[in-house]
Fold:
Amino acid sequence: MVNFDYQNPTRIIFGKDTENETGRLASGYAEKVLLHYGGGSIKKTGLYDRVTASLKDAGLEVFELSGVKPNPRLSLVREGIKICREKQIDLILAVGGGSVIDSAKAIGVGADYDGDVWDFYTGKAEPQGSTPVATILTIPAAGSESSQGSVITNEDGGLKRPCNSLYMYPVFSILNPELAYTLPEYQIACGTTDIMAHMIERYFTNVKNVELTDRLLEGAMRNIIHHAPRLLQDSKNYATWAEVMWTGTVAHNNMLDTGRIGDWGSHDIEHELSGMYDIAHGAGLAIIIPAWMKYVHNHDLNRFVQFATLVWSAEMDFNEPAKTALEGIYRLEAHFKRMGMKTRLSEVGITADTYEAMADKATDGDTKTLGNFVKLDKAALMEIFSLAE
Amino acid sequence: MVNFDYQNPTRIIFGKDTENETGRLASGYAEKVLLHYGGGSIKKTGLYDRVTASLKDAGLEVFELSGVKPNPRLSLVREGIKICREKQIDLILAVGGGSVIDSAKAIGVGADYDGDVWDFYTGKAEPQGSTPVATILTIPAAGSESSQGSVITNEDGGLKRPCNSLYMYPVFSILNPELAYTLPEYQIACGTTDIMAHMIERYFTNVKNVELTDRLLEGAMRNIIHHAPRLLQDSKNYATWAEVMWTGTVAHNNMLDTGRIGDWGSHDIEHELSGMYDIAHGAGLAIIIPAWMKYVHNHDLNRFVQFATLVWSAEMDFNEPAKTALEGIYRLEAHFKRMGMKTRLSEVGITADTYEAMADKATDGDTKTLGNFVKLDKAALMEIFSLAE
Structure:
């Protein structure tokens, strides 16, 4: 176990009808709220009305910025920052999924900074504060509702870049599983893939003696594997959504990776895919992760055997453990397919002639590597793309 | 899953040599620190010198109150409150195990209150604030380093009572597994029993559909079962202590019981035992929990079968699941014995003639019940004591 410094101050209000407490909770932080959301779906479901009523009942002044798209855009973030400054907003309330929350976080740190918010995503500067952000989660997936991360896409160049900062933890997040009932099957599949991916990135580490977090990650992964397919049969089951929604938060709130160093290579590769092709984040991960596993599994066969037996309950082959290791990868791929995900680049129209451009872009022309479990250079990426063909 | 409101703001600084960061961390909160500890053990190990040096290097003024005993006393708490007021202490630094930390928490809320601190432990009043408390943990057991609870004993009547409050979360806790190297075997056994007990109390719930936290609790319990016996062989193993110390914190930081309602009957019964006989908390739990399980297991046989199979890897007897349920209880008792704990009242000199007095005291003369999984009245307690004979 490596030394760590862990704190997650986000308050979670979880359960039925909890969105009606928004005003009461927000009034602890704010007089002027910027309501930030995507398109019309929260209006169709009535969530928009309930939330604005709750805010106004609490005597809060509400401003609005809608239009967040998947892979949230820097240009809208800049618009939000402008509103925050002009209106002296003291709480940004993100109502939506990871894209809306990530956009709100960018607005929050940007409004508190004299320079250009993109500096935080290029590493040129680090946030020193933020206008508080709160969330009402509608899509269990990204874990952004209780994480210190945000991913923004700069349309100028299709650059999708992450920023992590203690100032990006939301002050509170409201999680009502019922708000996910209207999600279409494809978004359920993408979201639960993303949740699994967050745990897989943490699980594959070179740090030894991390057994508590191994056990916690295995338990949480088994919970997603058990419940995600049930949502395809019954997308309005409270108990099932509650499991998936809470696991999605726990998967990414940094508790499960205390003392270990995660990989995150697959996420970085996927950011290139979705930055260049605008495919959903979960869709990219379902393709990259199994290929990445096939490429790296010999680096620590024992860990892949552990993944196969303790996550997938694969039979242990004591004479040929390598076969057990591969069995875990095959079961993960089968699970993604069962969820309706495509697991090959060719299935989403990405062909071999683009591999080199993607590998070059991800590695800045083979000048940097991705991942920690195995450091991936351009050649490694080319092999992973071939394995994902 | 039931609705919940979860927040744990305690910052954890975990790892080797982290006690040397005390001054840097404390200076974010304080100019005047009350160092609170037990006896001479932290002086013998040199921890006292390192901590005071770190505090003084950071320019902090240090006051002291030592003498905390197991089952920490109200009289010393009152002394601490007096010092805090006279010296205008702005941070109480507990260096020790759960008793020292619980005592510090009581001083913290008491210093911030005009009335008598015991009011918080009788339920007469609720804390509305606290002088900040920080901790350096030396005994993995109580989980108080990241919990909202404190248990204090009023010598006047041998009353041992808990108080829970959001104001009791420490602002930061320093966890260095090396600080536990000097613990004697008996304290290792008591501490790991207490950690198991915290998870068992959470595990046995009547709330349905709590599968994420079931899986997390099972994983964390397996981790203690795996590592605790190793400490008896090698009490200076960093990796093993790191597992036990971090699991001890996670077991009681309220993350693992989100959405469920724990039992806590065994803890309440044990408080009577250790309040009346001054036996160690873990020692009392090792006796009460197996007996409690034997008494209640038919209330939800499925859950006990789940405990046996997923925590203890007991073979499932599909034809006679009740046998599998009992097997889990027997394995827990065998584990406690292997750790060197006594598991019967008679072994610690508590005889049948005192059962009625204990049962009366715990239930206020059969006017209240203990526990949630099964409500225990005086008659139930008498049966549990018989099963523990």
User: Anything to note?
Assistant: Residues 211-233 of chain B form the longest helix (23 residues). The CA atoms of residues 1 and 209 of chain B lie 5 Å apart.
